[in-house]
Amino acid sequence: MSRIKTVFDRLASQNRKALIPFFTAGDPRPALTVPLMHAVAKAGADLIELGVPFSDPMADGPVIQRASERALKNHMTLKGVLEMVAEFRKQNAATPVVLMGYGNPIEAMGWEAFAKQCEEVGVDGALTVDFPPEESHDAFLHLQRHGIDPIFLLAPTTDEARIEKVAKLARGYVYYVSLKGVTGAGNLDLSDVEKRIPELRRHISLPIGVGFGIRDARTAQATARLCDGVVVGSRIVQEIEASNEQNVVENVSALINELRQAIDQA
Amino acid sequence: MYDYPDSTGHFGPYGGIYMAETLIPAVEELRVQYLRYQNDPDFKAEFAYELKHYVGRPSPIYHAKNWSEKLGGAQIYLKREDLNHTGAHKINNAIGQALLARRMGKKRVIAETGAGMHGVATATVAARYGMECVVYMGAEDVQRQAPNVYRMKLLGAKVVPVESGSRTLKDACNEAIRDWVTNVESTFYIFGTAAGPHPYPMMVRDFQCVIGNEAKVQMPEMIGRQPDAVIACVGGGSNAIGLFHPYIEEESVAIIGVEAGGHGIKSGAHAAPLTSKSKVGVLHGNRVYLMQDDDGQIMETHSISAGLDYPGVGPEHCWLKDIGRAQYVAIDDEEAMKAFHDLCRFEGIIPALESSHALAHAAKIAPSMGRDKVLLVNLSGRGDKDINTVARLSGISL
Questions:
Q1: Which of B205, B238, B299, B308 has the fewest CB atoms within 10 Å, i.e. is most exposed?
Q2: Cα–Cα–Cα angle for B213, B214, B218, nearest 5°?
Q3: CA angle, B196 as apex, B293 and A181 as ends, to 5°?
């Protein structure tokens, strides 16, 4: 059974919700990425979404854009990200890792080579923001061949027919984009999310994670009540940005701890 | 018969709808509405009226006799898109999309711009139809094209300088897409070139085809036949596809697209993904030839002309290259500058630096062709916006 399914099954049986932190590989420095992954896992993260930096992050707000720029300045590559996951797996066999980013770095490597290496190093899922189901047929076949879950986005604008389409292709979990906007936007309205989730559940049996615009323990807690997992990205990247190399691991751990407690009290 | 794109927006392997989920329903809605209005008699009549009375179409074709004489070979004819209202071909497409936006009930339009011509065209139609307008422009280009920035402001648009990435056209596109995803319900994205997610490459091409459709009538009137070749500059490629598309099935007419060779293809500092044999990749909603490094990161480009300074190219050009119907070449900064000065001096026309690339290629091949041969070059825009750049290169401060 896949790591992602194992985690969500366990959480469901405990009546708990997943905490899913996102941060960009190679930010603030490549040498700190694996220590950060271990730290968030230890502090209570259930699954890690690891950002693959891209030169043109169209769906991201300024915070994650800057993280991408820092990572690229540090010469972070997709190959390098896969090596980091291999390193992480030497000490952590349980926490699922999903690579999140844009399609072109994978296109450049080739989907078959990418999927094969994901399987080898222990990546569990892949989320490519700019590859909707309509353009994902080839990608999907390669990921499936190597047991990598394709994670798809659903949005406030997605209609029922498209939800059906995504439901057929998605594996692992589905990522519901909580608002119309970019990552880290300030216009999250949880009453919209509350209305939407039951509609999604009519078509989707996989766990539903919710992200974009979740900025503190309070919103994380309120979101957790509505779904199966809470994705926190920009807030964590902000913490990384505001820290120095000596205290970044400690600061991010403290933030994850705080989010964990809030979500468990939901 | 040539009939592209297919129903899913692909030109062979190129094109598509590579967008984040939030915007997929928006491009789908756009596709449905465009298909609905494209053959609607009222829409067509209003578009034709605006092109005639507001833009000043048809644009004439001019025989550049002096310059042809100097070159001593093929005769060069110019399709005068520089004489359009706002000074370039961009207005054709901006009007088409604005009319569609009005029918879709959108009161706010956004655009990206490089040289500023598409931004000015969009600001113009927004003023004409009473719509709110925001234009995203790379901070670098805001510096390079200051007169166009002020022009847009005069027309009531808000110009947002984009500081991220390479601070040029591609970053302006990223920022416009971010605006669109945030304001998707109220906002129509007037995309400036024949690229992006389906239906943009098809829709922009259709609106720009007025260029080639007119030429196909005008050339026989002037010389009794079609030209031997049609030539246009290619950044994203909207002026080029507008001229080329009506000629695709005229097999006797050669089709030549001219990319920005910058400091030369070998230098790496250029904006010529087709000529430099770049790998295929995905950016801004479509699969195209794309300048990128081995890790799939998009490369910074260089061209003397801001309007060609883009790492990708429209999907239909990629397809026309693959099937061999069009040929793509590159002209470097210096060659373009020479053509710019020659047209000024020999014909009394100041061409845009973008169009100067197409002119330079015509000047390159004309001398080896017979005097009875005819080259039709799309003079896609006028060069008033470029005089600061040209002066600086000549060591003159204005």
A1: B299
A2: 125
A3: 95
DSSP state letters, B234-300: -SS-HHHHHHHGGGTT-TTSEEEEEEEEET-GGGS-SB-TTTTTPPEEEETEEEEE--B-TTSPBPP
Q: How is residue B61 written in tokens?
A: 């074709």
* Residue B28 annotated in active site: no
**Considering only CA atoms, which of A125, A107, A110 is closest in space to residue A170?**
A125
Nearest-CA residue of chain A relative to B15?
A135
pLDDT digits (tens, 9 = 90+) for B126-140: 999 999 999 999 998
Considering only CB atoms, which chain A residues are within 8 Å of B287?
A: 135
- CA B372/CA B378 separation, integer angstroms: 20
Residues with Cβ within 8 Å of residue A198, at least 6 apart in sequence? none
Size of interface A-B (CB pairs under 8 A): 120
Mark out the alpha helices in A28-121 (DSSP H runs): 30-42, 62-73, 78-89, 103-109, 111-121
Task: Give the distance from residue A261's alpha carbon to the nearest chain B alpha carbon, in angstroms.
Answer: 31
CA distances for B313 relative to A28, A40, A66, angstroms? 34, 42, 27
Give the pLDDT confidence of B10-41 residue by residue, as tens digits: 999 999 999 999 999 999 999 999 999 999 99
Mean pLDDT, residues A74-88 taken together: 98
B385-395 pLDDT, tens per residue? 999 899 998 89
Beta-bridge partner residues of B233: B258
The percent of residues above 90 in pLDDT, for chain B, comes to 94
Catalytic entry in B79, B90, B170, B321: B90
Which residue's structure tokens are 């669109």?
A: B180
Judge contact between B123 and B203, C-beta under 8 A: no
Give the type of residue at B269: A
A131 vs B18, B174, B290: nearest CB: B18
